[in-house]
């Protein structure tokens, strides 16, 4: 914001009263606009802007767009629950016998008893590290008198080493459960009496990372050929510097890549978008539009921006647009439940007409900024308000905004990618940052594999153990 210097004040004073008034009015207008801008920045949170939830603090939250359910809290009627079940086959049987009469003290050990009650306790067996020794032998053939030596299994390479289950568990704790290496070390020591160094933990994770290289390539290829894919990117601290984690997601596969750039340079090097010809769902970041695929915008982002405009700027058109987009989402959901593949042409026309009416109201409430002839001329066009920028996006890119009502394959939002990227933010929240680029790349590849396993309902721990047993699961 430009301040008034003494020379400007003296010049206006010399020119007369009107010049002083014009100078002060211009300054007050600019000052007022700046105050409103700062107040709006302070009012933003994760529910009405692109800010992450970690920046919300403990202040008053905006009203949620979720409607209150009519269902009571807790388990619903007909819900089976997860209670312990009585097992017909048990691993251990303990009989509590009567040895003496509780009245006279007579010895009853030779008297046959009657079983009158049973109870079951589900517990863990004794947890300890099992040491398995492998031996090979040599035999001399009596026919040719030559020696034949047996071989160790492919996974048994060192004189003393950890087995696949231990190595898979360490990777599971450190990379999936996001437990830092020092605490992973403590768990292995306290639970299994396995004294493992942090360096050893890192080595196991590194081996998992290398083994997953062909699987990561397979995941990328699958996403490239998918009909619909979600894309997003988020900042991450790596070795004290800001870098970017790029995510590409489908309902069954996830790929992460850490890169120092956010835009097209990074996307080209990752290699998914340049070869993707399907329907790309994203938040409207300009670099995505450089690629020759169908583009669709995330309406969850639009809803958050509309909430801000409605609550902070008190513009009624924003509330109507929120209601319309949410109604359209519900209509499509119901149509899918009714096994429909598209909406009726009349329904679409009605929705489009209502959309246009709200857009017109938005333009009316947010006209293009006027140029004040009394103020010094500036390069470029006058700065548009955030509300006007949103209206222009909704209007000029309406096919990308309303794609979900035209094509049921197109999702309403980009929440799939945002959910996947949330794990990266959780990692950063726990560890603060990745200490090296190599560590960041290890996390990205293993986490992408884990996310893919989870989406497909596969056992994560079992899959990680099988990597160290030489039987990696391709997904």
Describe what you observe in this structure.
The protein is of the alpha/beta class and 475 residues long. It has a domain of 214 residues. Helices cover 45% and strands 8% of the residues. The protein has 16 helices and seven strands. The strands form two sheets. The protein has a five-stranded mixed β-sheet with strand order 5-4-3-6-7, sandwiched between helices. A two-stranded antiparallel sheet has the order 1-2. A hairpin with a 4-residue loop joins strand 4 and strand 5. The longest helix has 27 residues. The radius of gyration is 33 Å and the shape is elongated. The two termini are 55 Å apart. The relative contact order is 0.12.
| Alpha carbon gyration radius | 33 Å
Low-confidence runs (pLDDT<50, min 5 residues)? none
How many H/I helical runs? Answer: 16
How many strand units? Answer: 7
**Percent in helix:** 40-55%
**In one word, what is the shape?**
elongated
Mean pLDDT: 89
Q: Distance between termini?
A: 55 Å
Q: What order do the helices and strands follow?
A: HHEEHHHHEEEHEEHHHHHHHHH
% residues in beta strands: 5-15%
What structural class should be given to the helix and strand makeup?
Answer: alpha/beta
Strand arrangement in the largest pleated sheet: 5-4-3-6-7
**What characterizes the major β-sheet?**
5 strands, mixed
């Amino acid at each position: 914001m430009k301040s008034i210097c003494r020379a400007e004040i003296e010049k206006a004073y010399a020119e007369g009263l009107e010049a002083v008034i014009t100078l002060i009015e211009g300054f007050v207008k600019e000052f007022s606009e700046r105050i409103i801008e700062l107040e709006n920045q302070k009012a933003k949170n994760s529910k009405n802007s692109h800010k992450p939830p970690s920046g919300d603090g403990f202040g008053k939250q905006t009203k949620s767009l979720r409607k209150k359910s009519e269902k009571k809290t807790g388990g619903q009627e007909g819900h089976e629950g997860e209670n312990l079940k009585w097992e017909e086959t048990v691993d251990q049987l303990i009989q509590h016998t009567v040895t003496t009469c509780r009245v006279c003290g007579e010895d009853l050990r030779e008297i046959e008893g009657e079983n009158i009650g049973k109870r079951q306790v589900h517990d863990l067996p004794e947890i300890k590290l099992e040491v398995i020794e492998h031996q090979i032998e040599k035999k001399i053939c009596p026919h040719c008198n030559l020696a034949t030596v047996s071989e160790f299994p492919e996974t048994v390479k060192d004189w003393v080493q950890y087995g696949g289950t231990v190595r898979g568990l360490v990777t599971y704790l450190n990379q999936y459960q996001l437990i830092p290496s020092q605490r992973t070390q403590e768990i292995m020591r306290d639970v299994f009496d396995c004294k493992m160094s942090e360096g050893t933990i890192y080595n196991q994770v590194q081996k998992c990372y290398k083994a997953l290289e062909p699987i990561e390539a397979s995941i990328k290829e699958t996403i490239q050929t998918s009909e619909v894919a979600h894309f997003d990117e988020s900042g991450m601290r790596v070795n004290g510097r800001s870098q970017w984690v790029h995510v590409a997601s489908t309902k069954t596969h996830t790929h992460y890549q850490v890169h120092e750039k956010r835009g097209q340079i990074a996307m080209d090097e990752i290699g998914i978008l340049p070869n993707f010809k399907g329907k790309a769902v994203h938040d409207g970041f300009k670099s995505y539009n450089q690629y020759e695929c169908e583009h669709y915008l995330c309406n969850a982002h639009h809803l958050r921006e509309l909430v801000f405009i409605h609550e902070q700027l008190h513009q009624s058109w924003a509330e109507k647009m929120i209601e319309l987009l949410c109604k359209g989402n519900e209509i499509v959901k119901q149509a899918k439940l009714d096994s429909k593949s598209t909406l009726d042409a009349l329904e679409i026309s009605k929705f489009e007409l209502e959309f246009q009416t709200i857009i017109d109201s938005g333009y009316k409430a947010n006209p293009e900024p006027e140029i004040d002839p009394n103020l010094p001329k500036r390069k470029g066009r006058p700065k548009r308000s955030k509300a006007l920028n949103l209206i222009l996006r909704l209007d000029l890119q309406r096919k990308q905004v309303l794609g979900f009502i035209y094509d049921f394959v197109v999702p309403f939002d980009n929440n799939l990618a945002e959910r996947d990227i949330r794990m990266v933010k959780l990692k950063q929240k726990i560890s603060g940052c990745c200490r090296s680029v190599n560590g960041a790349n290890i996390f990205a590849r293993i986490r992408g594999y884990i996310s893919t396993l989870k989406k497909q309902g596969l056992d994560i721990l079992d899959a990680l153990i099988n990597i160290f047993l030489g039987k990696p699961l391709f997904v």
